Amino acid sequence: MDRADIKSMSLSELSEKCRAFDLPAFRAKQIYKWLQVRGVASFDEMTDLSRDLRGVLAEHFEILFCSIKRKQVSALDGTVKYLFELNDGELIESVVMKYKYGYTICVSTQVGCKMNCAFCASGLSGFVRDLYPSEILSQIHAAQNDLGIQISHIVLMGMGEPLDNFDNVMKFLDIVSNPDGLNISMRKISLSTSGIVPRIYDLLEKKLQLTLSISLHAPNDEIRSRIMPVNKKYGIDELLKACRTYAKTTSRRISFEYALISGVTDTDECAVELASKLKNMLCHVNLIPVNEVTENSFKRPGAERTERFMGILENNGINATVRRSLGSDIDASCGQLRNRHKKGEKSVC
Ligand code: SAH
Predict the structure, then answer these.
(1) What mean pLDDT do residues 289-307 have?
(2) Within a 10 A sphere around the Cβ of 102, how many other Cβ atoms?
(3) Mean pLDDT of 15-38
């Protein structure tokens, strides 16, 4: 018999299961807390449940978790990058960053990715499968338990395309923000997408208070389609129209990620065009000098070019910052660690 994935259950689903087992209502909350707050990997760790009950639970349910396959700690800023192994042996990555306001975790939502962006290491070895809600949650549990910390912010910016795993990601958001679980408010969560337009409208319907991040990376269809194949399906005007609707309806500022690639996306013309496309939108642009990955030849521009690009945006009334690059000594950009591991290379730390 296949055992059900208990950590992917909402509190109300778990309560229903407990009722079916004739367990009192408080048991559901108790079990939920073990799973979602303490992040235990086995029923045996639920020490305030009887041995018999633990046995019954283990017979019917499975706890999916992440075990640490490899861990790298940045000597520069303490950023921690994990390569996690899932119950079926698949590998995913997560990164924990320390900021003044607390710890942020960047989680993966899929094993591999279908989007194939030219500059990104995640899609290189193709798409394997979606992550279950429990597996997205387990990245937080594993990191918290390993580091002895409490994560306060989440970015869905690891491996995978969150809106291509829509239902599981929505379930994850529901569970992670539950007051009886990790209780991380939507305002402290950012979801990043390469721009699957119909799913942006679906997300809008949910009326969540999270921050929507759009990986824009280019100001027009010609350049964007070259580096992001998704743009051939959903062009930039369609995408920006969805963003404007999203910002207007939710009153939440959209965050645009824009990778500066030398000679491709970092020119003055690009900056001017970008500013005109984003005019009068409630938004912010995050400029990211591209992380150079060994598998492609994209180069990051120098500091001067980056400053100039930002200056043009600001002179045109667009809010912009340059993203502080954390963990640059530990391959902390999506997919790099998993690829190295698969190729059998040694890690840097
Ligand atoms: N699929 C989603 C989630 C991945 S988020 C998305 O595309 O938004 C990861 C972020 O890092 C995205 O903005 C992605 O475009 C960016 N990224 C990937 N590889 C990068 C690289 N080499 N340098 C800079 N940013 C990169």
Answers:
(1) 90
(2) 13
(3) 95
Residue 222: how many CB atoms within 10 A of its CB?
10
Structure tokens given for 82: 């994990």
Name the CATH superfamily, with its identifier, for domain 67-343.
Aldolase class I (3.20.20.70)
Give the bridge partners for 103, in sequence order.
98, 151
What's the CA-to-centroid distance between 136 and ligand 1, angstroms? 18
Query: Which residues are registered as beta bridge partners of 214?
Result: 193, 256
Give the domain 4-62 fold: DNA polymerase; domain 1 (1.10.150)
Residue nearest to atom 14 of ligand 1 (CA): 215
Q: Residue 206: which residues within 8 A CB-CB, separation 6 or more?
A: 170
pLDDT tens-digit readout, 149-174: 999 999 999 999 999 999 999 999 99
Looking at ligand 1, which atom is closest to the CA of residue 161?
A: 1
Domain ranges of the chain: 4-62, 67-343
Decide: 117 in ligand 1 pocket, CB within 6 A: yes
pLDDT at 333 over 60: no
Q: What DSSP designation does 164 have?
A: G
**With contact defined as beta carbons under 8 Å apart, do 98 and 79 qualify?**
yes
In sign, the C-alpha dihedral spanning 222, 227, 231, 232 is positive
Q: What is the average per-residue pLDDT within 132-144?
A: 98
Average pLDDT over residues 92-102: 94
Q: Strand, coil or helix: what is 269?
A: helix
Separation between Cα atoms, residue 122 and residue 332, nearest integer Å:
12
